[in-house]
Amino acid sequence: MTSQHEFPRNGPKAETRRRTLSIVQEHTRFWHNGHLTCDWMELCGKGDETLRMLLDADALQPGCGRYLGVNMEEAVLDHNRKEFVPQTEAGLVQWVLGDLCTLLSDLDAFPNTGIIVFDSFNSASKVNLDVILDTILGFAKSQQRKLGQALVVLNLALRGNMVHGREAGKRRLQEYLRERLGVEVSQEQFHDYRSKKVEMRMCWIGLGF
Ligand SMILES: C[S@@+](CC[C@H](N)C(=O)[O-])C[C@H]1O[C@@H](n2cnc3c(N)ncnc32)[C@H](O)[C@@H]1O
Q1: DSSP secondary structure of 111-151
Q2: Residues 180/195, Cβ–Cβ less than 8 Å
Q3: Which of 30, 86, 105, 177 has a CB 3.0–4.6 Å from the CB of 38, allowing a cystine?
Q4: Which residues of the chain have pLDDT under 50?
């Protein structure tokens, strides 16, 4: 079948995927003997490039950390099941249907997940963003208690709206994180880049490291 890749394999987006992998490799306990030891959960794309990167790095081994690709559209998961047949059958990857926040509101549902990548086009100015981030950080803190560490990666659009303009959205995100984490998030933890459609802001949050 023809591969169909929704999000770029190269360029600024690919660099953000590689940065996440190198943080895992260099700063977390989730990398041992060249392999991932915890599950890596991410909102996946059709023809998922993060999984492709992990496979190229030989990061996934049977019985070790898996890739959990989440999407609320069955068609995206079906496409990926067909594109990654051997890896899916070998249990290196699991395709999970549902809304990420609903899934993560069950703190016991994904016991080996240490990396959560909220790679979405949600806006940093979105009115109910706090509700979404509270669920993700709540799950990550619970995983930190179980696994010793957790890594949360946020990818948000810098798109203003009637309530919060673009710059207000950036400030709001920073204030939100300072309040919930109890520390200032440093400028090095943020990274802005331009996707095909819009300016994006990444943030890497290490819990326990
Ligand atoms: C930006 S793409 C993921 C790209 C991929 N991580 C990559 O590196 O190429 C986000 C996908 O997640 C879906 N999505 C967005 N919010 C979601 C949510 N809360 N729960 C489940 N799926 C979601 C979108 O429909 C879209 O298919």
Answers
A1: TTEEEEEEEEEEETT-TTHHHHHHHHHHHHHHHHHHHS-EE
A2: no
A3: 30
A4: 1-2
Substitution site in 72, 76, 97, 110 for ligand 1 pocket (most atoms within 8 Å of beta carbon): 72
DSSP letter, residue 185: P
Residue 186: partners with Cβ closer than 8 Å, 6 or more residues away: none
Report how far residue 112's alpha carbon sits from residue 31's, in angstroms, rounded to the nearest whole number.
13
Q: How far apart are CA 33 and CA 21, in angstroms?
A: 15
Cβ of 53 less than 6 Å from ligand 1? no
pLDDT at residue 20 in the model: 98
Q: Which residue type, as a one-letter code, is found at position 75?
A: A
49 CB near ligand 1 (under 6 Å)? yes
DSSP designation for 64? S
User: What are the structural domains of the chain?
Assistant: 12-207 (3.40.50.150)
Classified as helix, coil or strand, 21 is: helix
**Start-to-end CA span in the chain (Å):** 42
Q: Give yes or no for residue 70 CB within 6 A of ligand 1.
A: yes
Q: What is the pLDDT of residue 165?
A: 83
Q: What is the pLDDT of residue 105?
A: 98
